[in-house]
Amino acid sequence: MYEGAFRILRALGDGRSLSRDDVVRAAGEASSVVREVTERYAKWFEIEEGRIRCSDRGLAALARELVARRAGQTPDSSWREAYEAIAAERSAPKRALDQIFITSGTAVRRAELLIEAGDHQRGLLFLGDDDLTSAALQLAGAGRKVTALDTDDEILGILARNAAGRGWEHETIRHDLRQPTPKAMRARYGAVFTDPPYALEGFRLFVSRAAEMLKPDGRLYVCFGHSRRASERGLQKQRVLTDAGFLVEAVFPDFNEYQGAEAIGSRSALWRCRVTPETRPLVRGEVDGELYTSRSPNS
Fold first, then answer.
1. Which of 61, 148, 165, 220 has minimal Cβ neighbours within 10 Å of its Cβ?
2. Residues of the chain with CATH 1.10.10.10
3. Under a CB-based contact definition with an 8 Å cutoff, are residues 199 and 98 in contact?
4. What's the rounded Cα separation, in Å, for the pair 48 and 271?
């Protein structure tokens, strides 16, 4: 569900009838957003003499969303061992692809955050998934279709095999991001999650492809870290997000823990960004050259 609609429904979820200004204050959304949502989802609201309340359909939509986001529920991470078993199917990290695997605790945190935010329901794409975060999300009970794109046949095979065996609705796509984005994938996804290559060239490419693939109200989750002694490298990546027209909604410091990556303290932050009218890819078309810290995958 569109986040603005969710916040407005939640503000009206107790059945109250509020003035438009009171809805703005209760939901924390601008008056223009309140107007857009009440017009776009007219069946969810009843408006009379300038006051707004949830209709029965709106309350039902809110209830479904709260269940999907598990609002008020204690997260259940009993599936962590199942994730560890799937992760154990991988061979050693492929340094040529900048693969450094996350800890199972990080997989749990990622899955819980995505479910709490409701982004698993909006058409979620993992842009590179050697961490098997899409599998963690399914094990956590997302119950929705998830897409994982990668160039690593081993990773795609592990995901496809487990999806078939466990009954997940899971799409795997083999695509090299150095090639142009397929038309069928442009503006298709409500959220993109990526832990891109450390090298700036690879980071720019992954962010650019995400910009092409996201819907106009989409969200980007992107991971990156840097040494305290090399803060300029973090600044360079912040500039990429700004130049690509993404609005940073939240930063979760030290969110990701790695089985390696000692050069950045074995941790990275998770940045949650929103698409804006100025969002645009910084890289278009086919790309040549180095994308990874060590070397390109085909060199």
1. 165
2. 3-69
3. yes
4. 40
Angle at 114 (CA atoms; ends 175, 92), nearest 5 degrees: 50
Q: Which residue has the tokens 């994982």?
A: 148
Q: Could you read off the pLDDT tens digit of each residue along the chain, which spans 299 residues?
A: 778 899 999 999 998 899 988 999 888 888 888 999 999 999 999 999 889 999 999 999 999 888 877 655 556 667 899 999 999 999 998 888 887 899 999 999 999 999 989 999 889 999 999 999 999 999 998 888 999 999 999 999 999 999 999 999 999 999 999 999 999 999 999 999 999 988 899 999 999 999 999 999 999 999 998 877 788 888 999 999 999 999 999 999 999 998 877 777 788 999 999 999 999 999 998 988 666 654 433 33
* Intervals of CATH 3.40.50.150 along the chain: 80-275
Task: Note the CATH architecture for domain 3-69.
Answer: Orthogonal Bundle (1.10)
Fold of 80-275: Rossmann fold (3.40.50)
pTM over 0.90: no
Residue pair 93/293 in contact (Cβ under 8 Å)? The answer is no
Phi-psi region of 31 (alpha: psi -120 to 50; beta: other; left: phi over 0): alpha
Residues 6+ away with beta carbon under 8 Å from 287: 177, 178, 205
Distance (Å, whole) CA 178 – CA 84: 31
